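Hello forum,

I keep getting stuck at the same step: I have a sequence, I want structure tokens, and every attempt I make locally crashes halfway through. Rather than fight my setup again tonight, could one of you with a working pipeline run this one for me? It's a single chain of 884 residues.
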Amino acid sequence: MPRIKKHEEEKINLTLLNALNGTDLFSQKSNRMNHVPLYISDNLKHKLRPYQLEALSHLDTVRHMPAADKLYDQLMFYMATGSGKTDIMAAAILYLYHKWHYQCFLFTTHTTAVVTKTLDNFTNNSSSKYLFNDPISIDGNNITIQSVSEYPTELEDGVIYIKCTGIQKLSNDMYTPHENGVTEDSLSKHKIVILADEAHHFNVGTRSKKKNQDSRNWELLLDHIRCINNQNLQLEFTATIDLHNPEIYQKYQNKIIAQYDLSKFINDGYSKKVFRLQANNSDNAKMLNAVLLSQYRKHIARNMEIPDFKPVILFKSNTIKVSNSTEQVFIEMIDGLTAESLHDFVQSQQQSTQSEALSLAYKYWLHQDFAETVSELKRDFRQFNIVNANDSGSKDILNDESVAQKLNSLETNSIRAVFAVAKLSEGWDVLNLYDIVRIGEKNIKPKDTNSEAQLIGRGARYNPFIYKGKKAYTRRFDKRKPEIQLLERLYYHTINNPQYLDNLRKSLDAINLPVNEDAKCHTYSATVKSSFKRTAVYKHGNVYYNKVISLPASSYDSIKKYGIDTDTASVIDLEDATAERNYDTGADKYSLSSSHTIIAARFNNVDDRALIKAAMSYIKFFRFNTLKNYCPTLTSMNEFLTSKDWLGNAIIQARVANRIEKLTNRQKLTAVKRYLSFVQQSIVKNFMRSKGTNEFVPMAVKEIVNDYTKRVTDPFNNQLGPNIGPNPMTGKDWYAYDNAIVDITEKEFIDQIGSIMPALKEQYQDAYLIRIDERADNFKLHDFGKDVVHYAGYMPDFILYLKDTDYIYQVYMEPKGEQLLQQDNWKEKLLERIDPKNVTILGESQNIKLYGVKFYLRYDKRHTIKELRDKNILKDNNSEFSLK
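Reply #2:
Ran it on my machine without issues. Output:
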């Protein structure tokens, strides 16, 4: 549900607008438009929406009022970002030309990039964003729109003249006359309509507490131009105006003729719905989550046969330095992805996420081929497909022409990710922005969140994609499955800082932007106890994780080392969309019941050898000299194709429609080629990975013990996730945090440790249970030993930190739900492998002893506490703690 403001702001009385919306004040209402005139509808590319027609109708009513030229020569359209103010401008140009014989229009705004974009909108009939039909025809006469630097002395019939200029250049032209610049004399020859976009920037004098008498003030400049001719008209457009400022209110209360706020715009379905995705993750994890969510949307659209659907992510940082480094980290993160690391990431995140959107994405990706997914992500998010839009913060990011071109064509180019610092300025009207990711923990002042709220409003613009052959400009999927609704939702991935979130809520309220929560949840905080911060353990202590090394080439002695399993058949989908891609997207084109599998080839079948070699001939990678670079232990192509250590046991099945009983030779060839492409991708992506060693290095305790917050689902709605909540740890000085934000199994584990703490404190000078901060991405254990098959890092939940006069003991411990035992079995084996006799501590004296123990299950079914006694870590003789 959208967030509800606690206190609704007092309704502001707008005199002219109230009169226009009234029923008894103006007899002129009979003149008002109740439909779009043909000379407008026939010549605009977009159909006017009801609120746009109402705005134009109000303009028509005011123009028919007595003494309109004198009393109402300055009017404002106060309308939400993305609501189509430029369409209203285009309609107003046609209206004022046809009904009131205006031929000269002056468009101005405060940024040159918006000037360039608007000039395209009005005059470039080859642009995809041109707003008129071509040709423009009124009453059988063709009308041309000409861009001019100055208006001609004699106006031609059938011509509309538009001068588009930035307000600063207009000021320079007026007060420092030069060749080809406008002058007061040239402006006085014809009646002019001033179109002032983002007009809140032109209220400097009115807003200022000290009245600015400078004649070059932008506000005074427009006032001056308007007054040159008593028939001049000034139409202002803005989504942001502070009507609570008495000076501003006094000026505009009788000038605003249309008001359509962001809340109504979103609730009427003309934009994406906005959701706030609040995460406890590190920046790296947030970035990868956004990538997975974005690519999930792309798959949903593909399965629904929506063409050319390309969701874009914006990564917003607080400084240029952070943004630039984040871009490099992102590039390296994507380059370094492997099928196994991505699988482990998704699996780990799925266990802890409270996000409805991410839960859907994780569920989907876990049913895909991770090697294929990694290859796809590396292709879609390679460096060529990202753009850095950073600036100094002092000028508009769109001023850079190459960047501007990319940003203004995001719907049609290949860009998938944008990195930026300064707020994306007015005029950036991208439609396919679906994720905004806030990077970094700083900048939590109201002015920072104000710009972010404006950015979210701009990103909410609706993406009018084609579905079932039709393009729509309003949401269509509000009543469909949540996964389908992702195509019409903008997600803002926030940092988890209470002060920042409070400021952001206030900023969103200020622009009346309704934001939905990603799931029913509560946010709980855990603060490091001041008593723990005073300890030597916190100030000087270390915890330990193991180093990783690159695997030697000699270790790649079988196809399994590249993540390829030949013990089970590989299914290649020969239908239009794969069953895996359709899984749980809510957009199934096919069901498994409508298809079946047929064996296409067996690598150990001599009769299939010619087919397999024919398929390999299409892929240059499978030339022995090339393959040998990635499979250094390979002796021949025959070994690669026939040995059970390589592809000898591989079986390829093709999924086809039930009506197909036998595969054609072409279908068999296609299936084998696709399988070999998968093999190629897996070999390339998984060659020369890193594995853990038995050498452990230190990390400071204070680096992994920090205040944190955790967003959890409603404890009364267990369908949404595990029952997680805060458990006060007051009086338990052995626990580093004031709250333990844990689920039932974790709470029981902490209680068990609490029960043996008296004995531990008798035995040790220091005894603490340290919860590992989820954001400590650098602190991970990696599997080590002779036969390592899992290469991804693993972060244990707890470390039991003990110190006596001779040694520091650290025990890696993890509570675990029984449903996860099979898939996480390798992690438990890794923990049990950690023992003083198996590990070496680097850079430290040998007074450190590291241990790992079995997973803790509810009711201590694995006898984890007994294992502490067996390892002589706990030396009491008490009976084990039992739960009723």
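The two ends are 40 Å apart (CA to CA). If your local run keeps crashing, start a new thread with the error log.
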